[in-house]
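Sequence in, structure out.
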Amino acid sequence: MANAPRTVWVESEQSAVTDSMITSHAPSNTFRFTPLSGSAIAARVGDLARLRIAVFREFPYLYDGSEDYERRYLQTYVDSPRSLVVLVHDADVLVGATTGLPLADETEEFQRQFLRSGYVLERVFYCGESVLDPRYRGRGVYKHLFAAREAHARTLGGFDWCAFCAVQRAPDHPLRPPGYQPLNAVWQHFGYTEQPALETTFTWQDVDCAAPTAKPMRFWLKALGAERAA
């Protein structure tokens, strides 16, 4: 089965959530952040799956996803007692989420490049996706999602690195929205460094394709150990 884009950050200002699960509630100034770990995530898998599908459908991921696959993917987080999912609500509406877990608790396909590059899996905390309804962007939510995962890694202890990966799309991709800017500057602001030598591929079906295709994915790292020593 093709892999969904399950290890990426997608707070692109061009993304649009149109899934019917997002209601017409007007954004408020009060957000509720709910952290969950392990088996406590199970009851919210359906909501989280639908949010992921809606956001990932937009550029740069263009993911033509299914809830069945999403549920199988999210089972990794349910099965890991060290995982983290933070749900972001405006009143009763789920408007965002972020995920993470120790790389040692991830599947082999996500561990492979780190092992080949000499990293110790137990020293890497793997940051998954961060998804947010576009109406709520630019209001400080994103920095809380970064901070929550890094704080969780520090609470668990023993991690030298936080890591995530992002899809690489051609600058002239036909579905690239006018004025689209990747989030590289944002990631750098939060202390992450792009790793051109640390790349892999994941396969999923784009919204404009008849069959799944492999996508180049590049990892970004932040040294938690250096931060502790500062």
